Amino acid sequence: MKEIDDTALRRSIRPLYNSKLLNARQNADGTCTLILTEKGRQWALTYQIENMRIHAPKNWDEKWRIVMFDIPERFKKVRDILRIHLRSLGFEELQKSVFVHPFPCINEIEYIAKHYGIGKYVRFIIAESIDNEQYVKRRFSSLLRGVSEK
Question: Is 45 buried (19+), middle (13-18) or exposed (0-12) by CB count in 10 A?
Fold first, then answer.
């Protein structure tokens, strides 16, 4: 059986514990049991990371959701996985570490960031305009076709 790296395990679990998704219970034999809180159970039921989707609202609020990240090189694999998730959710890449989407998605982004323990490297911005907005709107034309603006 492969031994578990204590530091990596703690780094993975700490964001879940801090977000109140897990509780820790110390056992008499010195072991620790992690228990999902009610909030954690709801998240587990709500999100299956591989099947996650951003749903189009009936009316678009004409705001842009921008995800920016600066993930250290030592976490390159996780950075690449984040890019894959963002693209699969329909985000468009504005720059190497800047992605944009027209629809509300803060919960999905927070979930992904917490899931991979990279929350401190990921920023989420809601913007009213982008200087190349016409280009970005064209990139989302198929998504925006199905919703009405304000």
Answer: exposed
The DSSP bridge pattern shows strands 92-95 and 98-101 to be antiparallel
The 10s digit of each residue's pLDDT in 15-59 is: 777 777 888 888 899 888 888 887 776 666 456 777 888 989 999
Q: Which amino acid is at 46?
A: T
Q: How far, in Å, are 79, 100, 103, 118 from residue 97 at the CA level?
A: 9, 10, 19, 14
Using DSSP's 3-state secondary structure scheme, residue 78 falls into: helix
- Domains of the chain with bracketed CATH: 6-48 (no CATH), 61-145 (3.30.70.240)
For residue 76, the SS3 value is: helix
CA atoms within 13 A on the CB side of 51: 5
The CA-CA-CA angle for residues 130, 133, 139, to 5°, reads 125
* E-only strand ranges, 1-150: 22-26, 32-36, 59-60, 64-69, 92-95, 98-101, 122-127, 148-149
